Amino acid sequence: MPTNPQSATILHALFGGTFDPIHYGHLRPVEALAAEVGLNQVTLLPNHVPPHRPQPEANAQQRLKMVELAIANNPLFAVDDRELHRTAPSYTIETLENVRKERGPTLPLAFIIGQDSLLTLHKWHRWQALLDICHLLVLARPGYNDQMDTPELQQWLERHRVTDAALLSQRPQGHIYLADTPLLEISATEIRQRRHQGISCDDLLPRSVQRYIELQGLYR
User: Fold this and answer.
1) Which residue of 9, 54, 83, 193 has the lowest C-beta tally within 10 Å?
2) Cα–chain-centroid distance for residue 21?
3) For residue 219, is it left (φ>0), alpha (ψ between -120 and 50) or beta?
4) Is residue 56 scored above 60 in pLDDT?
5) Longest Cα separation, the chain
6) In 2-83, which ranges are E strands?
7) Coil, strand, or helix at residue 46?
8) How far is 75 from 18, CA to CA, in rounded Å?
9) What is the pLDDT of residue 2?
10) 93-140 pLDDT, tens per residue?
11) The pTM is what?
12) Among 32-36, 48-52, 82-86, 146-150, which stretch is predicted with the lowest mean pLDDT?
């Protein structure tokens, strides 16, 4: 249990992604999650070199700028660019270990992932150490199974799952919370494909980001 009673009331959350580009499918479910579990701020962590995915089309500076534009008028969000300074692949566990060292052992800390990521979490680098560092907050994703791949993984999920969001602020780490967030069928792949085809994307991402994409000539 946290020793500082004030820190016990504030849950800090991080949300990583390639953000190539950032869009409403990232932002709106996290806003709903924040309202559901009582988050005051969510720190976005743009990835540099994602280990398990194709390389981004936009470079690190462009993706960071798009994130900054997308959250400019929204006090819920902040951005941490530490992963963009790496030259090696970005492993979530290493970033979270660094954040934990900076913020101390008693702060309630959470990492936000999608249901798709939860289902493949056992393929992540040192995945079993994640709950030793933080909670996991899971966003609903359209079209994905709500059961883990094996009975053992399902038991792991049930062992750590909580349904009372208040519990997330009472421990520094160790819980999994499956959020009741909106299912938005928006993907960065779809946005890039629309751009390739010359189709407007204004309904999928903030206008400020769309303008930047146009100015930079991205995703053509």
Assistant:
1) 54
2) 14
3) left
4) yes
5) 56
6) 12-17, 42-46, 77-79
7) strand
8) 21
9) 41
10) 999 999 999 999 999 999 999 999 999 999 999 999 999 999 999 999
11) 0.92
12) 48-52
3-class state of residue 216 by DSSP: helix
- Residue matched to tokens 């990492």: 111
CB atoms within 10 A of CB 46: 24
Determine the pLDDT at residue 51.
Answer: 60
Q: Give φ, ψ of 46 to 5 degrees.
A: -65, 135
How many residues does this entry show for the chain?
220
The token duo for 219 is 């995703």
Q: How far apart are CA 202 and CA 30, in angstroms?
A: 19
Return phi, psi of residue 79, to 5°.
Answer: -130, 140
- The answer to whether residues 42 and 30 touch, using CB atoms and an 8 Å cutoff, is yes
Q: Phi and psi for 160 in degrees, rounded to 5?
A: -105, -10
DSSP string, 166-209: GGGGSSSS--EEE---------HHHHHHHHHHT---TTTS-HHH
Contact 138, 15 (CB under 8 A): no
Token pair recorded at residue 9: 């009331």
**CA pair distance 138, 112, nearest whole angstrom:** 6
Amino acid at 74: N
> Average per-residue pLDDT in the chain?
91
